[in-house]
Amino acid sequence: MDFDIIDKKIAGFMHRTGTIALRVSLGIIFIWFGLLKTAGLSPAEPLVVATVGWMPFFDAITWVIIIGWWEVIIGVCFLFRATIRIAIPLLAMQMVGTFLPLIILTAVTFQPGHFPYAPTMEGQYIIKNLLIISAALVVGGTVRGDVAGK
């Protein structure tokens, strides 16, 4: 077999399975991390508690649990093609909150004296959500089954 044939087969496989893999991965990640929050086992809990402490109606731990179930719902919605349209706006709302620590907790999310270019581990954890947003855009682009806008 020559390289071109092998390359076409590999690229074809990636084309056929890539979006499905993204959708299922998003589902698994959101369900898993959400369940960790609801069970009080999330390593992100202190960051979430520090971020939501100002919010009304509930105490910070209750907000962590609510956010955890919100994430589980997002994850379940990504698992099924028919509910992607629900997952996307739920994820968009969740991402707004996810990025808040970069603004309101700069002492936690950036190394001392190195704002805004040297994030801490917590800051990196948040910034990697840009990849999740990009994956959601790719998955969301499949909801019509045709090429949107053409």
Structure characteristics:
150 residues; mainly alpha
Q: What's the total helix number?
A: 7
Shape: globular
pLDDT < 50 stretches: none
Total beta strand runs: 0
Estimate what percentage of residues fall within beta strands: under 5%
Q: Which structural class matches the secondary elements?
A: mainly alpha
Spatial separation of the terminal alpha carbons: 37 Å
Mean pLDDT: 92
N-to-C series of helices and strands: HHHHHHH
Report on the biggest sheet: none
Assign a percent range to the helix content: over 70%
Domain count: the total is 1
Gyration radius (Cα, Å) is 18 Å
Quickly describe the structure:
The mean pLDDT is 92.
Helices and strands, with pairings:
Elements: H1 3-38, H2 45-52, H3 60-79, H4 84-104, H5 106-109, H6 121-127, H7 129-140
Structural description of this entry:
The chain has about 150 residues and is an all-alpha fold. The chain has one domain (about 5-140). The chain has helices at about 5-40, 45-50, 60-80, 85-105, 105-110, 120-125, 130-140.
